[in-house]
Specification:
single chain, alpha/beta, 2 domains, about 45% helix
Length: about 280
């Protein structure tokens, strides 16, 4: 059964107005109801349920293993964490995972349609700008499905390009600019630009009428996106362009260790344990 469709004020096209008015766009990732509640309370304009959850939450080495059903499951959970009325919630975008859109337009429409039909996601994100992907984007947009593009370091292509910085030479920079313009022409409402030279990101941002969202692409972009778990220091290894703001993993580990040690001490001191017990009613 599909979700009940409710009106929302934060449409994908609203981000274009943000660019026109000079408002910086902020995007954070989420993967469950707790992280969804946190990033909503923090004031993110957009919440992305990224396929990075394959690594951050599910423990895989890459983003490739996560399935469409898992992306749907986590998107539903994130939305359950939102506490504001639907018209005040951040825009919810979901990544289309590997092989859910690369195998043709029909499958792509079915995959994206499922996410929008069975969750409160209002848009999807796809990687790349090859001719086949451009065709998919055009088809999705014609079907009323908003699409966010993604260029530069595209994690679903890890076995071909690795996790290194992209577009280091002039030819590849010209290709990125050409691809970004193609994504805009195909109907994308924004483009994520990951791990590319700052000068290239600035050029792309100036050339496009749609917002360019950077991650490891300098400060000249129209907005910034980060993996929330990286910012909070919850992952074992962060990318060089996203250093942790706090040592979350260390804080949590030390807090839990302290609690466990307290329980051990209580077990060794029955008198103290009795005094620590909740009173009888």
């Amino acid at each position: 059964m599909g979700m009940k469709v409710l009106a929302r004020n934060m449409l994908p096209t609203e981000l274009i107005r943000f660019k026109q008015t000079g408002k910086t766009i902020t995007i954070l990732t989420a993967w469950d109801s707790i992280s969804g509640a946190l990033v909503e309370a923090a004031g993110a304009d957009v919440v992305l349920v990224g396929d990075s959850l394959s690594m951050v939450i599910l423990g895989h080495a890459t983003t490739l293993p996560v399935t469409l059903q898992q992306m749907l499951y986590h998107t539903q959970a994130v939305a359950r964490g939102f506490t504001q009325p639907i018209n005040k919630q951040p825009l919810l975008v979901c990544d289309l995972p590997f092989l859910s859109y690369q195998c043709g337009e029909e499958k792509a429409v079915a995959s994206a349609g499922l996410l929008l039909k069975e969750s409160y996601a209002a848009a999807v994100k796809v990687e790349g700008a090859e001719p086949e992907i451009i065709g998919v984007i055009q088809r999705l947009v014609r079907m009323g499905i908003p699409v966010m593009g993604h260029l530069g370091l595209t994690p679903q292509s890890v076995h071909r390009i690795g996790y290194r910085r992209q577009a280091e030479d002039k030819q590849s920079q010209e290709q990125i600019l050409s691809q970004a313009l193609a994504l805009e022409k195909a109907g994308c409402f924004s483009v994520v630009l990951e791990h590319v030279p700052d000068s290239l990101a600035e050029q792309v941002t100036k050339q496009l009428a749609i917002p360019v969202i950077g991650i490891g692409a300098g400060k000249s972009c129209d907005g910034q996106i980060r993996v929330t778990a990286d910012l909070l220091g919850l992952t074992s290894k962060q990318p060089p362009f996203s250093p942790p703001l706090i040592s979350g993993r260390k804080i949590f580990e030390e807090t839990l260790k302290e609690w466990i040690q307290q329980q051990h001490l209580l077990g060794e001191n029955p008198t103290k344990q009795k005094s620590q017990q909740e009173p009888d009613y």
